[in-house]
Structure formats: structure tokens, C-alpha cells
Amino acid sequence: MKLTYYVLTAGVTAVVTFTLSLVILKLSTRFRLYPKIRERDVHTRPTPRLGGVAMFIGVLAAFWVASNLAQFDLIFRDTGRVLAILAAALIIVLIGVADDIWDLDWLTKLAGQAIAAGILVWQGVQLVTIPIGGVTVVPPVLGLALTVLAVVLVMNAVNFIDGLDGLVSGVVLIANTVFFAYSYFLTTSLQAEFEFFNLSSLLSAILIGACAGFLPVNWHPAKMFMGDAGALLVGLLMAASAVSVTGGIDPATLTSGSYLLPAFLPILLPLAVLIVPLLDFGLAVFRRLRAGKSPFSADRKHLHHRLLDMGHSHFHAVLIFYAWTAVVSVGFLLFLFIPAWSAATFIVVGLVLCAWLTLAPITRRKALESAAQRTEAVSEIHAGALGPLESGVYDPLDAAAIDRDTGPVPVLGEFPEPLEPVIDILTRKERP
């Protein structure tokens, strides 16, 4: 079966990545190859950040295996594109490792990203056509600019969400599984002129393997992070995969039967699978520019930080990101398989459910606050039951929200019995 060769390639990537991750983890711990904890970091103990190196070597191993399989011969006939991808990946990994160790300035990182994207374009990994109005040929200069912009954008978008254990690995794993299913469908079901063994599908399979191999050591509590080297590498390969498939599909082959959005799906699906990173990136850039700062300056206001601040646990925050990614990407893919109304219903219901899960802590806290402030014990607490706290300044919820390590809060036994369950929930501290 043809699919076996992609599974083999992904499996090799996963095994090599996982094995080298353990080796690099041991070396990093032994020689203390990890930076100090920054103010914006969520983790509480120094953690190695060189997982991207293991992922890169896993990618190299996958390309070597694929190059020795006759089924992928057509891909490796164009050695320029393959070498360009590997060279760009090497540049990105070196920049990422340097940043993880020495914390490079944003201009240096951006310049390196632009050079890596330029290498891809130089060897033909670029937008030549876009599936709008049939097949529209993109002027060379415009195609070059759009490709460089897209590659740099995706790399930074993926890097921006790399703030929670297992977040990038899981999101990219879900997104590329969907994207691989899309390219597989193109080659088997719609008679599209799209070779089964193609560069886009190969890159998606390799990314699936790299993320699956790294996720066990990156799951919360993470033993190691992929760092900028891993996040930028993943973004680069995702962008290269999307550019390759978008420029190689004639939407006229997708317009039969009940399929919806045929002409735009090759463009919409790459955006859909990256919806969470792109949203976070856009919000961060807008937020920083409005404050008069560089769009690449660091802060602690990313979407994953906000989820933690809302009251989600680390594990729940990561699962919510997974859910948003899965609903949007799978929903757009379903337009190729089921009637349009069914696919749209799936997306709407999924988004509503995701929104409810996202906002649940706020709803729960408001309910507890209402219950606490309606109780007959409020007046008694305001009258002096809070002890050291100034009477009339705090209501029961405010008092309970004060960190016991930083503020004088009475033990639960000092609160009247009706409020103890409420106070217990609100003062419960979860592991970051």
C-alpha cells in the first residue's frame, strides 16, 4: 500500500527524534545547558531548550530514508528544492539555538528568517500560481515577496504560541495530520493532477513524526522544550508544505458534485490549520504596536497566558488549543467529504463548544462570587471576621483570592460554614 511509505518515513522521524531528545536531555542536564527562567515563562524550574536539535536530526534522517525509497524518486530528482529546504532548516535551527542560549535581538532573528525563506524561493519553493479564477499565474516578483512573507509569518506565528508544555507539538501534530489527509485526498479521489508521492505530503508526514517523537518529553511537566530552534523549524516546514500544495492544484479539478469552496480550499485550509498561531501572532503584533513597542518584543499576554490567568490549569489550556485547532482544520477539510451544511454545522457547533470550554472558569467564578455575596454571612465577615484585613475593603471573594503566601488571609475554619466550600475552591492553588 502506498500510504505505508509515508508511515515509514514518519516512524523513522519519530524514533530518531525521541531517541535523540533523551540523549540531548541527559547532556543538557549534565552540563547545565539551559537558560534562566524569564519573567514571562510559565515553568518554575530551569528546563533545557534544545529539543529543536533532536527534531532537526530526525528530519534529516527522514529525508535520507525517503531518498533511498524508489517511490519518492520524483521528489529527489529536483535536488535543488530538497537541498534548499534542508539548508533553510539548518539556518533556522542555528539561529534558534543561538537565541535559546544567548537571546538574540529580534532584528538578527528576522534577518535570518528572511534569508532562509529566500533560499527556498531561490530554488523554486514558492508561489507560482494561486487557485483563484482557475489557475492564476503570480508575477515572479510578487510570488517571491508573498512566499517570503508567508514563510516568515508562519515561523513566527508558531514560535509565538510556544509557551506551554506540549502546545506546539500537539497543535502541529493535529494540523499536519489534517493537511496530510487533504493532500492524500487530492491524489486519490478527485483525479487532480497531483503526484501521490509529492513534497507537500512528505513534509507533512515528517512533521507528524517529529512532533509525535518529541511530544513525550515535552508533555506537562515538560522535561525539555523545543525552543526557538524547534518552533521555527516546524513553522518553516509547514510553510514550505503549504506553498508546495497551493501552487500545484488546479481548482477546476475540485468543482464537481457537492464540494463547497473548491476554488479557495487550497488557500483556506493552510490558514485553517494555522488558525490558533496566526490569531495569537496577529493579536500580539497589534498589541505591541499600539503600545509603541517592537512587534517582536516579549510579553506575557499571549493567548496561553490569558487562559492560565482565567483559571485554566496548564493541562486544560493545552487541550483547549488542541480543540480550537481540530475544530477549524477538520471542519474545513469536511467540505470535501460531506454536504456543505453538515460541514458548516460541525464548525459552528464545535466553535460554540470551544468557546464555552474557554470561558468556563469565568462563568464558574461569577457563580461562586454571586453565591458568596448573597450569603447572610457577608455582613458578619465585613464586621470584622477577616481579622487583620481592613473591614469593608474586601468582600469574601476578594479576601479568598489573595495569595496566602503574600497576604494575610484567615484559615478556612475562620469563615462561617456556608462560605467554606466557596473559599476552598477560590483559594485552591494549582500547579503552574
How does this model look, in words?
- The chain is 66% helix and 1% strand.
- The protein is mainly α and 432 residues long.
- The chain has 2 domains: 3-309, no CATH class; 375-427, no CATH class.
- Residues 256-260 and 386-419 have low confidence and may be disordered.
The percent of residues in helical segments reads 55-70%
Q: How many β-strand stretches?
A: 2
Q: Which shape, going by the Cα principal axes? A: globular
Task: Provide the domain count.
Answer: 2
Largest sheet: 2 strands, antiparallel
**Total count of helical runs of at least 4 residues:** 17
Structural class: mainly alpha
Strand order of the largest sheet: 1-2
Instruction: Give the amount of beta strand, in percent.
Output: under 5%
First and last CA, distance = 45 Å
Mean pLDDT: 80
The low-confidence runs, each spanning 5 or more residues with pLDDT under 50, are 256-260, 386-419
Secondary-structure element pattern, one letter each: HHHHHEEHHHHHHHHHHHH
Rg on CA atoms, Å: 25 Å
What's the arrangement of secondary structure elements?
Layout: H1 3-30, H2 51-67, H3 73-77, H4 79-102, H5 106-122, E1 129-130, E2 136-137, H6 140-160, H7 167-188, H8 199-218, H9 227-246, H10 265-273, H11 275-290, H12 303-310, H13 314-334, H14 340-374, H15 377-385, H16 396-401, H17 420-427
Helix pairs in contact: 1-2, 1-8, 2-4, 2-8, 2-9, 4-5, 4-9, 5-6, 6-9, 6-11, 7-8, 7-9, 7-13, 8-9, 10-13, 13-14
